Structure formats: structure tokens, C-alpha cells
């Protein structure tokens, strides 16, 4: 999760988050390259003894260059983003399925697997004394096994919501009357926090998401009990 005075992105828990982080850094590198080139040519123009463009009317090479170079830069950004978009769709086979349903203004979760049924509502923890993370802690968190392919079915009962986990680089809209699907996979245990990322009303800021990744034994104990 993001800590105080943090300038960088959050630590990632899965491959998707790592790829999103790398693409973010690569995009910034391309933007810095464009900025440096622009400032360099501006310096040449304004610091020269006479303007280079005076009496310069046309050049096929120049027109070809300022068309080709931006096109190559866009391709260098578009191709990785398309690969990343399809990579974020996840696997076709899953070990576990969970439902996340948005309400005004809380989340409800359902897990019906391995002969057990688990369904509960998750509200923000309003007791500041018992809350470790302000506006992010909930009264009942979701416990999932790590190193496991989990399919999440996201929907809503009233208005548009968004189930977002920045540490995993995923965000999916919760639409009334529609099921959206996403895949989550954590390669290490730990706690992941998120929030609703779609303006859904007056208490939109108070819909936190808390996932706890642990081993299979703890997960199955929660399902059975």
C-alpha cells in the first residue's frame, strides 16, 4: 500500500502489477526523450547567430522525418500496451471463484467452493482506535490463498462502482445487471488494500477493499467455519 511521503507506485504482488509498473517507467522514459529533443532543438534555434529557418521553405526529408519519428514513438507505446491489455485478461482456467458485489456504500463477497459457502458484507471500519489504516481498514476482510489463480466476478446492485487494487494493477467496473470478470494472482502472502474508483454517491470515499493472502490451510478453515 502507499505510505506517507511516497513518491513512487506501490509494491506489486503479481505479474500484472509488475508489468504495469515497467510500462509506466517506459512511458516516462519516452516522454522524457521527447522533452529533451524538443528543448535541444529550441536551444539550437534561439541560440544560433541567425535563425536556421530563415528562407527555408520546404524539405521532403524534414516532412518525412517529423511524420515517421512520432509514428514510431506511438508504435513503441501502443504495441506494449496492447500486449499488457491482453495479459491482464488472465488465465482461462481458475482454481477459485469469488463474487464481489458493490452496494451504496459497501462491498459484499461470496465464495462457494470446496463444499463450503461463505458470504458476508464488508464495511469500512469506523472505529479509529481499532483501525490500523484510516479509511482503508474494514470490519471483515477477504481471505484468499496465494499462488492461486482466482477468478473474480464483479457486479453491482444499484449504481456504477469500480473494484480496484493498485498493488495488483487491476481495476474493473461494477455495473448493475452485468458480470465483469478479472483474474487475480498473488505470488506472496500479505495484505492488499483498494478502494472504489468510480464516483458512486456521497459516501464514495468510504468503500475500501481489503484482501488478505495466506496459505491454503487458513483459507479452507475460513470456508468450512
TrEMBL record:
Record domain Cytochrome oxidase subunit II transmembrane region profile: where: 1-92
Q: Which InterPro entries does UniProt cross-reference here?
A: CcO_II (IPR045187), CcO_II-like_C (IPR002429), Copper_CuA (IPR001505), Cupredoxin (IPR008972), Cyt_c_oxidase_su2_TM_dom (IPR011759), Cyt_c_oxidase_su2_TM_sf (IPR036257)
Question: What is the required cofactor set for this protein?
Answer: Cu cation
Which cellular component terms (GO) are annotated to the entry?
mitochondrial inner membrane
Q: Output the PROSITE patterns linked to this UniProt entry.
A: COX2, COX2_CUA, COX2_TM
- Subcellular localization(s) per the UniProt record: Membrane; Mitochondrion inner membrane
GO annotation, biological process: ATP synthesis coupled electron transport
- Quote the PANTHER family the UniProt record gives: CYTOCHROME C OXIDASE SUBUNIT 2, CYTOCHROME C OXIDASE, SUBUNIT II
Q: What is this protein called?
A: Cytochrome c oxidase subunit 2
Upper classification of the source organism reads: Eukaryota, Metazoa, Chordata, Tunicata, Ascidiacea
What gene does this protein come from?
cox2
